[in-house]
Amino acid sequence: MTCTACKYCLQCSISKIKKIMENNDLALVNVDKSKAMVIIDKNKLKEKINNFIKENHINMLNKDPTEVYQKQIHQAIQKCNTLTDKQTHRYLLNIKPMAPKLNVYLKHKDNLPIRPVINNIQAPSYKTARYVNKRIQDLLKLLYTYHTQNSQEIAEELLKLQIHENIRIITLDIKDMYVSLPIPGILLTTSFWLNKHNNYNKQQNEHILHILNVIIRQNYFQYEVLPTKTRGL
Predict the structure, then answer these.
(1) Looking at the domain assignment, is residue 86 inside a domain?
(2) Could you tell me if 36 and 203 are in contact, meaning their C-beta atoms sit under 8 angstroms apart?
């Protein structure tokens, strides 16, 4: 449908841009930590995603495991009765779970590397993971932990520091941190701090570790929306 009111209306311009992009195999991708967007060749974008998958040894699954994972979460919730009552169980399950989707952002660096982000909102473990995370935070009172809302807050705090010539400020970044986290290490560390801060309720600690083990092993996503493209870490 063509607009007859204005030759240069926004709706017509957007439609024309979309048509040009489709005809030239181009994709519009958000830039990481910015409101900017980049037009990129679809084949180059696909190559970046495939390289990320290959470099991190992510395997393709034969079928979508969502239904199996949903049952595992349900069984874990029922078993871990020290964490929730029966009335709460239904609120910890996604009614219509789906395999998490891979979203991609482009970084402000040479060659525009990607920042992969997995949308877990529809995943079987999403609601349960949020609940367990809150319980762990309530139980563990860790020292020297700090949280900031954004970079502006950090800048304001730095201005308050009295810095002399012997002080150095550094920033650290971990490449592909999420896929580099060792599952046994996560469980071991969590067990240590739970037993240190919640030693009076060992059964609850065991239930937290059990359900945490189920959650973090459900590490998969769908790419290109096809069941044959479902990946597992």
Answers:
(1) yes
(2) no
> Which of left, alpha, beta for 220 (phi over 0: left; psi -120 to 50: alpha)?
beta
Query: For position 102, what pLDDT does the model report?
Result: 92
| Number of structural domains found in the chain | 1
Scanning the structure block, which residue is given the tokens 């600690």? 205
Q: Is the pTM of the predicted complex or chain greater than 0.85? A: no
Of 223, 187, 201, 197, residue with least CA distance to 59: 223
One-letter amino acid for residue 203 of the chain = Q
Helix, strand, coil in percent for the chain, rounding step 5: 45, 15, 40
| Residue 68 identity (one-letter amino acid) | V
Give the pLDDT score at 77: 94
To 5 degrees, how large is the angle CA 67–CA 56–CA 68? 10
DSSP 118: E
Residue with structure tokens 């900017």? 36
Q: Give a yes or no: residue 73 inside a domain.
A: yes
Q: How many CB atoms lie within 10 A of CB 34?
A: 12
| pLDDT of 228 above 70 | no
Domain range spanning residue 187? Answer: 32-142+180-232
Write down the mean pLDDT value for the chain.
86
The whole-number pLDDT of residue 154 equals: 84
Q: Is residue 42 part of a domain?
A: yes
**Contact, 61 vs 186, CB < 8 A?**
no
